[in-house]
Amino acid sequence: DTVGKVIRCRAAILWELKSKMKIEEIEVAVPVKDQIRVKIIYNALCHSDLHVIDGSLKTRLPIILGHEATGIVESVGDEVKAFKTGDVVIPLYQPQCRKCAACQHGDTNLCTSLSFSNEGSHFTCRGKQVFPFMGLGTFSEYAVIREHMLVKIDPRAPLDKACLAGCGLATGYGAAVNTAQIRRGERVAVIGLGGVGLSAIQGAKNAGASAIYAIDINSEKFDSARKMGATHCVNPRDVPKDGKFGSWFIKNFGAVDKSLECIGNVQCMKDAVEIVERGWGRAVMVGIAPDGATLSFNPGHLTIGKTITGSIFGGWKSIDDIPMLVEEMRKGKIEVDPLITHRFDLEKVDEAVELLKNGKSIRSVISL
Ligand code: CND
Ligand code: ZN
Fold first, then answer.
1. Active site annotation includes 148
2. How far apart are CA 158 and CA 164, in angstroms?
3. Is 51 annotated in the active site?
4. Is the pLDDT confidence value at 115 over 80?
């Protein structure tokens, strides 16, 4: 029985930037107040984890990465009311407290109740504090998570797939249906065909888009894109040397109603703005640009009525909406199988990193 005791378990720690993670034995604190200790079962690797490793997303070190997980509640702090031992859960890097101004507002999911950059740590390794990525740190067999950053899901859901509802699937799908607000018959372009972009394609398809342009410099992604609903696959490397992607795309395919950038590349963000219709086009930024990046474009795009926006976690009110997404997955209305290309044990997490970095995988699911 582990309740009330510090747990010693394995976790993958990133000690330095641009290095491999090390599997270490760590201590995980007893949960107090609104904290919940979760046994993590599966965690899929997302490109945001890679952004930390390569230094383009600044965080404190050493860190335990991971934010796309499923788990089971091991024990709870004395102020926790909504969870008990044995509940099946998804950790949420985007909290929902239901009390702050953002939670009360119908148009945003950006709850301000918890700022994970100020959160302390519940992990130690050889006497040293280890920080949890985005308040979660789910590349650990156990993690301590605040109550507003956790949601119960149907225990019948397949946990190795449901973890994708903790980030990639929810982020891309929601960016399409909530942020881009894709309507039946619209023409859509998705730039970047990873787990996030492919989920945006599925969102566009389920919303009834009439044409979905899947855009990536890696043509190996096109099969998956077609499986998810893309009607056309476009490789920017086919643009003639003296040409610009935006004007080339419009000349060949026409402008689109909605575009989604799912890479975090500033040039691709500009392209997303270029290729939407004047008057009503909407360009949605989903990718996370490197720390300190700026985006510049001709302000005429705004004068002629284009909308430029973006979202975190697909705009979903996380605790309200994620169980519904898991339900749609369970019923097969949202497909997740084509997104899962590899599976590894925690020891092999760095193989998953190499595959994602080299464009050889969509999502690798890691068993803890
Ligand atoms: P992943 O690496 O799987 O996919 C990125 C895709 O972009 C790959 O297929 C690349 O080949 C492609 N690509 C790279 N450069 C170019 C280029 N110049 N032109 C065209 N295609 C290119 O990444 P992912 O799907 O896991 O994540 C994508 C982004 O979304 C990444 O920046 C991640 O940090 C971000 C994100 C955002 C949010 C949010 O809440 N907004 C949540 N999770 C992830
Ligand atoms: Zn993510």
1. no
2. 11
3. yes
4. no
Average pLDDT value over all residues in the chain: 97
Q: Tell me how many domains the chain contains.
A: 2
Cis peptide leading into 62, omega within 30 of 0?
yes
Which of 43, 45, 46, 213 has most ligand 1 atoms within 8 Å of its beta carbon, as the pocket-test mutant? 46
Give the tens place of pLDDT for each residue, 182-217. 999 999 999 999 999 999 999 999 999 999 999 999
Q: Provide the whole-model pTM.
A: 0.97
Q: What's the CATH code of the domain at 362?
A: 3.90.180.10
Residue 290 and residue 351 in one domain: no
Alpha carbon of 288 to those of 21, 52, 102: distances in Å? 22, 11, 21
Judge whether 130 lies within some domain: yes
The residue whose CA has the least distance to atom 13 of ligand 1 is 192
**Are both 299 and 181 inside the same structural domain?**
yes
Q: What secondary structure does DSSP assign to 161-199, as a single string?
A: HHGGGGTHHHHHHHIIIIIS---TT-EEEEE--SHHHHH
Residues 174 and 151 in one domain: no
